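User: My instructor asked us to take a sequence, write out its structure as tokens, and then describe one feature of it. I'm not sure where to start. Here is the sequence I was given:
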Amino acid sequence: MNRKIFYIALVTLIIDQVTKIIVSFFLRANEQISIIKNFFSIHYIENNGAAWSLLTGRVEFLILISLIVLFVIYRYMYNFKKNNRNNLAFGFILGGILGNLLDRIFLGYVKDFLSFNIFQYHYPIFNFADVFIVIGTVLLIFAVFKGEDKNETNQSK
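Assistant: Let's start with the prediction itself. The structure tokens for your sequence are:
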């Protein structure tokens, strides 16, 4: 694995895990602190499903899916052009997936705590691993549109 991707994934994982530890130290499950009234709060929940409570209680299945996704991403990241944006994208995605995967393996749930109300819609509560995964995915979509999903060394094959 590219060292830059490894270090980005490691920093991403550390940020995710440290923030989860801090929140769970100060709040118990289902407690919240309003930061910006009617917009943003820290609301600690223990989520044993995926986004939007999909697959609730299917922790083993979600662990398996995470491992498969990690394998697929690792296998195909070398097809992408080597540049800082793609390194950042893959590092964010890998670190984010690992952050939530570690929670599922060791706790049986994922620690979520970022809660937003946007235009009267209460967005599902999430964590920094989720933020990194989304940012990394957007960066990869951008790379695909720019044609950077084909590494120069792979084009001749």
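For the description part of your assignment, you could build on this observation: The radius of gyration is 17 Å. Try explaining in your own words what that tells you about the chain.
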